[in-house]
């Protein structure tokens, strides 16, 4: 299971399916609720229309037996008096709930009060809606609490849900209650119901459609997402396979396939190939370095061994000065190789303040033919590494100068600039970058070389880069070579 959902493709498919499922379920519930609300409101409107039609007939003094709304065709109808008693109901009404009373048979009509018309009128007046308790009875029976004049129908309608059985058929209904103040029968409340069968049927149909359609739709979403993510991730799998093959074969000349698109995966492939190119160049540079270092070490070691073997056999032939010279040369070469190894390993220089002017005066002290012109310029870094850089530049300039080496330190904007110039033959423009490569010595320099291995300028360039600066070669005003070191200036404060 963990392996199944450990891939991006599986997680993307699962995530998309869950999001769509939540959205569909939420939308489905909203649709069902809205559908139910609208259909219930529509049923309420029909019920209110039926109730008001009956109330209108009652206000017009229509007798109960003549009311057209009691035939049961439009739904159950109850008419309640002020006391909540049932005075009229739909024909064939067998059971009802959801109204103010569950009675289905009207109460017997009260005996006639007599032949005296005036008494009859007074009795009618006593049942008028002006009775202060009328509103309370109407409220108890579910009707309106409005004060009504004779023949007036209440504007307020109350609603409720219930059920009724008419002629053996039981259904759910939406009931509307409307009050009417009659001229001769007091305040009456009319309950009329409209069937909710259409609402139930529509809601059931919608729910069934959701239960059937939702899994199908989620299956389609999952399938489409699986295919789309598979197609999108296919180049990634190609990159992975090729990288695995490169790792197994250790062949850094191979490259991963680059899609023809312009999306993130194509950029990933290009970046991967650029990384492989840089790694191949780095490995090749390391191989050359090891080969060159081995070659450079072989010469002084072989010379020193030869001298020692000769001395062992013929002590009188020992060239002590030559042995010491080879030993010193071997020592310098080992020190250079160790420093380059530390620089390649990413060793960060110290963050101490270094005054280039003071450093230049210190490193040039005791050297003949060196002119120093400086102004204060502080930088941050390793005083030892920067001193080594300047020493290498001075040694190189001294080997190629005819008479004079000039050292300058100046401030130039946000940079401190240290320059070392000689009055020699200079460096050809085509070779001004090549001389910073390791173990590179120009043919013109070899004849005058005093045993250098061609690492001095390479070390100087690496030290400059590690300090956030640059080291370049150019032409000096006197015609020789000019090496300029630029480092970020630290303002004195």
Number of strands: 13
CATH class of the largest domain: Alpha Beta
Tell me the structural class: alpha+beta
Strand order across the largest sheet: 2-1-6-5-4-3
Rg from alpha-carbon coordinates: 53 Å
Question: What can you see in these coordinates?
Answer:
The chain has 493 residues and is an alpha+beta fold. The chain has three domains: 173 residues, Beta-Lactamase; 81 residues, Helix Hairpins, CATH 1.10.287.130; 137 residues, Heat Shock Protein 90 (2-Layer Sandwich). It has ten helices and 13 strands. The protein has a six-stranded antiparallel sheet. Strands 8-10-11-13-12 form a five-stranded mixed sheet. The longest helix has 53 residues.
Question: What descriptive keywords fit this protein?
Answer:
single chain, 493 residues, alpha+beta, Beta-Lactamase, Heat Shock Protein 90, 6-stranded antiparallel β-sheet, 10 helices, 48% helix, rod-shaped
Short description:
The protein has 493 residues and is α+β, with helices and mostly antiparallel strands.
Topology summary:
Blueprint (H helix, E strand, L loop, with lengths): L7 H52 L17 E4 L5 E4 L3 E5 L19 H10 L7 H7 L17 E9 L2 E13 L5 E9 L1 H53 L14 H50 L6 H25 L7 E4 H9 L5 E5 L3 E4 L1 H18 L4 E8 L2 E8 L20 H4 L9 H11 L3 E6 L5 E8 L5
Parallel strand pairs: 8-10
Antiparallel strand pairs: 1-2, 1-6, 3-4, 4-5, 5-6, 7-9, 10-11, 11-13, 12-13
């Amino acid at each position: 299971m963990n392996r199944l959902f450990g891939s991006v493709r599986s997680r993307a498919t699962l995530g998309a399916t869950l999001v769509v499922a939540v959205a569909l379920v939420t939308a489905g519930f909203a649709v069902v609720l809205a559908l139910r609300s609208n259909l219930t409101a529509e049923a309420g409107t029909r019920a209110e229309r039926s109730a008001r039609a009956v109330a209108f007939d009652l206000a017009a003094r229509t007798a109960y037996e003549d009311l057209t709304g009691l035939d049961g065709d439009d739904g159950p109808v109850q008419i309640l008096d002020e006391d909540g008693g049932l005075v009229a109901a739909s024909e064939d009404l067998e059971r009802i709930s959801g109204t103010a009373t569950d009675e289905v048979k009207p109460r017997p009509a009260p005996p006639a009060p007599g032949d005296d018309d005036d008494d009859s009128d007074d009795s009618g007046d006593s049942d008028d809606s002006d009775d202060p308790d009328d509103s309370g009875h109407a409220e108890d029976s579910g009707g309106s609490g409005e004060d009504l004049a004779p023949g007036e129908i209440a504007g307020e309608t109350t609603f409720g849900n219930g059920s009724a059985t008419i002629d053996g058929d039981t259904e759910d209904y939406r009931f509307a209650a409307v009050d009417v103040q009659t001229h001769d029968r007091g305040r009456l409340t009319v309950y009329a119901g409209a069937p909710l069968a259409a609402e139930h049927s529509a809601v059931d149909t919608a729910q069934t459609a959701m239960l059937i359609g939702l899994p199908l739709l989620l299956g389609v979403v999952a399938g489409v997402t699986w295919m789309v993510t598979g197609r999108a991730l296919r180049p990634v799998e190609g990159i992975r396979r090729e990288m695995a093959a490169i790792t197994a074969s250790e062949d850094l000349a191979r490259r991963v396939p680059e899609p023809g698109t312009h999306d993130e995966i194509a950029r990933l492939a290009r970046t991967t190939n650029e990384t492989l190119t840089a790694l191949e160049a780095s490995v090749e540079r390391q191989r050359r370095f090891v080969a060159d270092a081995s070659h450079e070490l072989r010469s002084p070691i072989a010379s020193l061994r030869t001298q020692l073997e000769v001395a062992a056999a013929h002590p009188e032939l020992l060239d002590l000065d030559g042995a010491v010279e080879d030993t010193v040369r071997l020592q310098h070469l080992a020190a250079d190789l160790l420093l380059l190894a530390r620089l390649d390993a990413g060793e960060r220089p110290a963050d101490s303040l270094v005054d280039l002017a003071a450093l230049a005066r210190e490193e040039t002290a005791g050297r003949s033919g060196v002119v120093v012109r400086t102004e204060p310029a502080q930088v941050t870094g390793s005083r030892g590494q920067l001193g080594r850089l300047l020493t290498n530049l001075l040694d190189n300039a001294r080997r190629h100068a005819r008479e004079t080496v000039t050292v300058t330190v100046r401030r130039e904007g946000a940079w401190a600039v240290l320059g070392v110039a000689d009055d020699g033959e200079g460096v050809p423009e085509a070779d001004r970058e090549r001389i910073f490569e390791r173990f590179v010595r120009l043919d013109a320099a070899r004849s005058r070389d005093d045993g250098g291995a061609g690492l001095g300028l390479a070390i100087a360039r690496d030290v400059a880069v590690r300090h956030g600066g640059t080291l370049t070669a150019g032409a000096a005003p006197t015609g020789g070579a000019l090496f300029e070191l630029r480092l970020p200036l630290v303002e004195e404060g």
